[in-house]
Amino acid sequence: MRRRAFSSGLLDMSDPWKVLIAMEEFCRVDPGLGLSAIASMFGSEILMLFGSDAQRERYLAPVMRGEMISAVAVTEPTGGSDVAGARSTMERVPGGYVLNGEKMFITNGTVADFYYVLARTSPPDSPEKRHRGLSVAIVERRWPGVTATKLRGKLGMRATDTAEVRFEGVRVPEENLVGEEGKGFYYIMTFFNISRVYVAAQAVGIAQGLLDLYSEYLSRRYGSRPPPEGAQFLLAEGITKVEAARLLTYRAASLIFQFRPDPALTSMAKYYAAEVANEVAQGVIAAMGEEGLRGRAEKLYRDAKITEIWEGTSEIEKLVIYRQLTRRSGS
Amino acid sequence: MTLRDEELLLRRLATEFCESEVEGARLRIEREGVPGPLLRRAAELGFLGALAPPELGGSGLDARSYSVLLQALSKCSTSLAYYVFVQNSLFIAPIIRLGAPEQARPLVEEVASGRSAGTLAQDLFREPGNPLSMQSSRLEGEADFVPLPRAAHHLVLVRASDRLALSGPGEVLEEYRLVGLRGVAFGRVRYGGDADVLPAPRAVDALRGLMEEASLGVAAMALGIAERAVEAAAQYAKDREAFNSKLAEFQPIAFYVAEAHAQLRAVESYVYSESPDPVAAKLLALDLARRASRMSIQVHGGYGYFEDVGIERLYRDAAALSSILGGREADLVSLARRILGDSAARI
Ligand SMILES: Cc1cc2nc3c(=O)[nH]c(=O)nc-3n(C[C@H](O)[C@H](O)[C@H](O)COP(=O)(O)OP(=O)(O)OC[C@H]3O[C@@H](n4cnc5c(N)ncnc54)[C@H](O)[C@@H]3O)c2cc1C
Questions:
Q1: Using 50, 70 and 90 to split pLDDT, how confident is the model at A4?
Q2: Do A285 and B307 touch (CB under 8 A)?
Q3: What's the rounded Cα separation, in Å, for the pair B29 and B296?
Q4: Which of A15, A231, B38, B230 is the most buried (most CB within 10 A)?
């Protein structure tokens, strides 16, 4: 399915709008499966923006043909929101580095061919400058010292693979360092400022999918009669919010795709779309009666929750929005 | 909320049972259903016959004590609480209220002792699908969303004759799990055999009334979900660090917990007040359970998304409870009509 998504041109990174719309539409129907296809190229923007030609040739090209799977390994057991608090280390040795550390909740963890790993290459000068001294490296899953353990029993997105990944004395050759040493935090944040718009699209798709199911339910139940106004309002309010979230998402995306990203807008889109997806999910599941408790509606209800968590929780998005606003107004 | 001594005692009994015997089996219950030995213990403790009178081997609990029990069980395993609820609110209470004493007695004794299970097949809250019919002691037709479809004793609402029938197990055409309450199987059952009729006339109305009373039990289970969600979020916020501070130090997280805590105490006071409206209680408690469980996952971050941590199930159980015995709309309609008259909420 993943290869077909690529060969059919649905997943074509040279046209990011296509990918964004594919994400939205996949999630409208089946977020878990859709995600597993698209997330096979998770992290690619890191190499597009900061990688060397050789790295792109070796790692990015096969991913774009659907032949390799990538993963982003940032979160650690001790923290995901505080990216600069990463405790994994890459120690310099002749010809490269030695990587030690533990990563948590890594999508594609046990199936990826390689990970984009964030680890500390030098201690911070001071606690305020923790975001310095972090670096990103491409680490292959089959290298000695890498162990990935699948995490089971997720609330939703069950078709995606999530794992804990351990790195014990892993030799990383010099040429697998992405960009410059010490700039990893900046690379990862730049990546998140792009990837978050795709999460917003996931949330829009999920919310739309739930409203689709709710209107199908209403037609089954009421036939050609109009449903009671309570139901009409639930649908009207839901679709209004979904449309607002979609516009915000497309606006953030259009700036990103013109290489003028606005991180505040991207975070607004992600936070708001996730909020809408979960609000709609809670409203629809409680309104569909017994029918909502089985099948696609309950699945979307479970899938919706992740959009408030991954790639920056809603709380973190709000902090980003505030920081960007104050930066802009110069205070 | 001030509980009476015997209610406090009951809560302690249920909580100790949960901590020592249920907590460890939690994931197994979700995957395979409530294990037999646990059911036998629940029977010994008087939980399976909570609403049955003592002379039939039950505990003879009043509505408030029954709520205390369900809340305490639900806090640990809403699946187990729902099993107890099915035995009591969906089988024992209807058969005692609507059955002839000689019909009710042996079955209530059996169910209270855990020797066999009872269930109720009803379609009060949906458009009837395949209508059931009852002709000279022969029950025919299908019912869907029957909890514990393999139970030995089925009370079956037959709308056509406005009666409750008492049947043995039918043929289970399909067995499935819902979004939550995964430890309790549901199913589509085909009946086509001899059945007894319960003598009470106007069974639809009578059962509606009983389901309305049972709404208080649903409210109690929803409170159990909310209580667990809030307590777990509070504990996690005190333990977990981000950006070198405890989560509890961040205003948004602290406010989530504080707000949910305040709402929990308010709804709880209502549920355990002198004469709560069961439907209003259910509505409030379920809204809270859905919100609080979402909040608790959020506070737990990525960990909240995984079943071994025990938080995501609250979110699923809240959804299942929200629609399993009449959804939010049905509850609002019934409440509105009591306040505004029969034509309210028509359009
Ligand atoms: C299914 C799944 C897939 C994932 N895939 C990946 C992946 O591929 N790669 C990867 O690197 N990570 C991945 N993650 C991890 C995810 O990005 C993190 O879970 C997320 O960033 C939150 O981190 P945490 O779980 O450590 O929560 P924490 O950072 O511990 O946060 C806990 C709670 O505290 C809040 N909080 C934290 N700091 C503050 C603050 N300053 N102010 C207010 N509130 C705050 C958070 O918002 C959250 O509500 C995945 C997670 C899941 C569940």
A1: confident
A2: no
A3: 22
A4: B230
C-alpha distances in Å from residue A252, one per residue of A187, A209, A262, B60 = 19, 22, 7, 62
In a domain, A219, yes or no: yes
A72 forms bridges with which residues in the sheet?
A116
In the three-class reduction of DSSP (H, G, I as helix; E, B as strand; rest coil), residue B91 is classed as helix
Site of tokens 């729902």: B82
pTM score over 0.95: yes
The whole-angstrom separation of Cα A105 and Cα A309 is 11
Q: How many angstroms separate the CA atoms of A67 and B183, rounded?
A: 41
Yes or no: say if A271 and A202 are a contact pair by the CB < 8 Å rule.
no
Residues B102-124, mean pLDDT to the nearest whole number: 96
A277-281, A326-330, B300-304, B333-337: which range is least confident on average? Answer: A326-330
- Superfamily holding B5-112: Acyl-CoA dehydrogenase/oxidase, N-terminal domain (1.10.540.10)
Closest approach of B133 to chain A, Cα-based (Å)? 23
Give the CATH fold of the B205-340 domain. Butyryl-CoA Dehydrogenase, subunit A; domain 3 (1.20.140)
DSSP A226: P
Query: What kind of architecture, by CATH, is found in domain B118-200?
Result: Beta Barrel (2.40)
Residue A151 pLDDT level (bands cut at 50, 70, 90): very high
CA distance B19 to B33: 18
Question: Among candidates A13, A10, A41, A15, which has minimal Cα distance to A26?
Answer: A10
Question: What's the A315 CA to ligand 1 centre distance in angstroms?
Answer: 10
Of the three residues A135, A155, A182, the one that is the final residue of a domain is A182
Q: Is the pLDDT of residue B87 over 60?
A: yes
Identify the band that residue A8 occupies on the pLDDT scale cut at 50, 70 and 90.
confident
Please give the Cα distance from A141 to B226 (Å, whole number): 41
Q: Are A74 and A188 in contact (CB under 8 A)?
A: yes
User: Sorting pLDDT into bands at 50, 70 and 90, what band is A35?
Assistant: confident
The CB density around residue B119, as the number of other CB atoms within 10 Å, is 25
Outline where chain B has alpha helix (H): 5-17, 26-32, 36-44, 63-76, 78-87, 93-98, 101-112, 203-239, 251-271, 278-300, 312-324, 328-340
The answer on pLDDT for A278 being more than 70 is yes
Domain that holds residue A146: 69-182
pLDDT in tens, A191-230: 999 999 999 999 999 999 999 999 999 999 999 999 999 9
Residues whose CB is less than 8 angstroms from the CB of residue A105 and which lie 6 or more positions away in sequence, other chains included: A75, A80, A151, A162, A164, A310, B302, B305
**Which residues from A are below 8 Å from B294, CB to CB?**
278, 282, 305
Determine, yes or no, domain membership for A111.
Answer: yes
Instruction: State residue A330's pLDDT score.
Output: 63
Counting the structural domains of chain A, the total is 2
Average pLDDT over residues A270-287: 96
Q: Count CB atoms within 10 A of the CB of residue B5.
A: 7
Residues A97 and A200 in one domain: no
What are the DSSP calls for A169-201, one per residue?
A: EEEEEGGGEESSTTBHHHHHHHHHHHHHHHHHH
CA of A109, closest atom in ligand 1: 8
Say if A90 falls within a structural domain: yes
Cβ contacts from A onto B, under 8 A: 127
pLDDT (average), residues B59-79: 98
- Please give the mean pLDDT across all residues of chain B: 96
How many percent of chain B have pLDDT more than 70?
A: 99
CATH code of the domain in which A145 resides: 2.40.110.10
Separation of alpha carbons B180 and B221, rounded Å: 13
Q: Best substitution site from A158, A198, A313 to test ligand 1's pocket, by max atoms within 8 Å of Cβ?
A: A313
